[in-house]
């Protein structure tokens, strides 16, 4: 099916090269998927409900954007981004895009490609969602060094979103007898790569003695007869390929599980939070409730105009219950309007992590809050 979708003008060598290229994407993702299944998905109703709801959708979108930002701002590699609807199936333009990227890079390594695909494996209990993959083509001389460097960079990147960075670990999958199911899967798909050599490791989050994989990173050595040749400072070479795979839904489940405290509050990073701020009106001792509501609406519009994700809803919950609800939703900061806010223009900014409040003036919004988000 893959070959039928190729342009008939392509030579047999190019067809074989593209077939192996797609197989490398599939093996890396399947290894990631089966390892996650074997370790049992984190079975917490709050996490599952959160992921499946509107807040979870925004959380996943934020994580995807952070992943794109990391790749595109990388100083070691120039990345190109391709979007496909189905993982592992060749789109009409994929081969053309690969040739164009090769031309733009003047056939020089290193360079990277980002793939954003939708999972299409029909396995039982398979999670739906996007697969984020990074491919880095590098010189064989530098491949081992760059592979471990990339692995460390990815671990550090995940650690910054963790409540306890020590829970983010690297687990080597090569010859790991304790992970026999994944190892068998790995060896089975190795045969499809026609002699290519693969090194694989999982980046995991460790929770309650469970290892939940959030990313798989593999190093691939292409076959000399069917690989894609490039140029380097030492001449024509067959580059090695580093492939990172992230199932967005699995990764979000692992990170959220790690962020959930004993009170079921989500202590998530502010860059991943669906809303960075929530405006709360404390109506105790307020003579004109509507004026306070209007002030809250004005501040909300001001923040949204500055592209700061802000939540402002009026409900019948008490002030303390709204604070608890915000903590469970993972909102890092609450802007609290009280009776004297109408007279003085001052409001209180509550930090979720410290529960402390600081007083700020409305005229300092949104510049102060923008700086706070960037810290």
TrEMBL record:
Gene3D superfamilies linked: Anticodon-binding domain (3.40.50.800), Bira Bifunctional Protein, Domain 2 (3.30.930.10)
Anticodon-binding domain: residues covered: 291-371
One of the GO BP terms on file: mitochondrial DNA replication
InterPro entries cross-referenced by the UniProt entry: aa-tRNA-synth_II/BPL/LPL, Anticodon-bd, Anticodon-bd_dom_sf, Gly-tRNA_synthase/POLG2
Gene Ontology CC annotation, any one: mitochondrion
PANTHER family named in the record: DNA POLYMERASE SUBUNIT GAMMA-2, MITOCHONDRIAL, GLYCYL-TRNA SYNTHETASE/DNA POLYMERASE SUBUNIT GAMMA-2
Record protein name field: Putative mitochondrial dna polymerase accessory subunit corethrella appendiculata
Organism for this UniProt entry: Xenopsylla cheopis (Oriental rat flea)
């Amino acid at each position: 099916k893959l070959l039928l979708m190729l342009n008939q003008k392509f030579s047999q060598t190019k067809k074989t090269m593209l077939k192996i290229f797609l197989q490398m994407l599939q093996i890396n993702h399947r290894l990631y998927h089966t390892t996650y299944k074997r370790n049992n998905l984190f079975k917490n109703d709050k996490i599952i409900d959160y992921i499946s709801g509107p807040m979870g959708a925004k959380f996943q979108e934020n994580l995807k954007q952070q992943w794109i930002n990391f790749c595109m701002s990388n100083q070691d590699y120039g990345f190109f981004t391709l979007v496909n609807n189905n993982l592992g199936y060749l789109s009409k333009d994929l081969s053309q895009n690969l040739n164009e990227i090769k031309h733009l890079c003047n056939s020089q390594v290193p360079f990277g490609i980002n793939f954003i695909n939708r999972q299409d494996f029909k396995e039982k209990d398979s999670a739906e969602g996007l697969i984020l993959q990074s491919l880095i083509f590098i010189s064989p001389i530098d491949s081992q060094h760059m592979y471990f460097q990339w692995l460390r960079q990815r671990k550090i990147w995940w650690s910054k979103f963790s409540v306890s960075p020590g829970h983010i670990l690297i687990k080597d999958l090569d010859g790991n007898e304790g992970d026999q199911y994944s190892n068998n899967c790995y060896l089975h798909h190795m045969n499809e790569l026609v002699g290519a050599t693969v090194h694989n490791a999982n980046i995991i989050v460790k929770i309650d003695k469970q290892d939940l994989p959030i990313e798989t990173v593999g190093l691939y050595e292409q076959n000399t007869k069917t690989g894609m040749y490039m140029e380097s400072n030492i001449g024509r070479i067959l580059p090695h390929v580093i492939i990172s795979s992230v199932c967005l839904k699995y990764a979000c489940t692992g990170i959220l599980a790690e962020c959930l405290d004993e009170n079921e509050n989500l202590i998530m990073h502010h860059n991943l939070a669906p809303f960075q701020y929530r405006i709360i009106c404390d109506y105790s001792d307020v003579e004109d409730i509507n004026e306070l509501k209007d002030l809250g609406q004005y501040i909300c519009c001001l923040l949204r105009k500055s592209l700061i994700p802000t939540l402002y809803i009026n409900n019948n919950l008490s002030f303390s219950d709204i604070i608890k609800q915000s903590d469970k939703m993972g909102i890092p900061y609450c802007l609290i309007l009280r009776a004297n806010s109408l007279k003085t223009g001052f409001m209180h900014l509550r930090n979720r992590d410290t529960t402390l409040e600081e007083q700020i003036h409305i005229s300092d919004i949104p510049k102060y809050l923008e700086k706070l988000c960037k810290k």
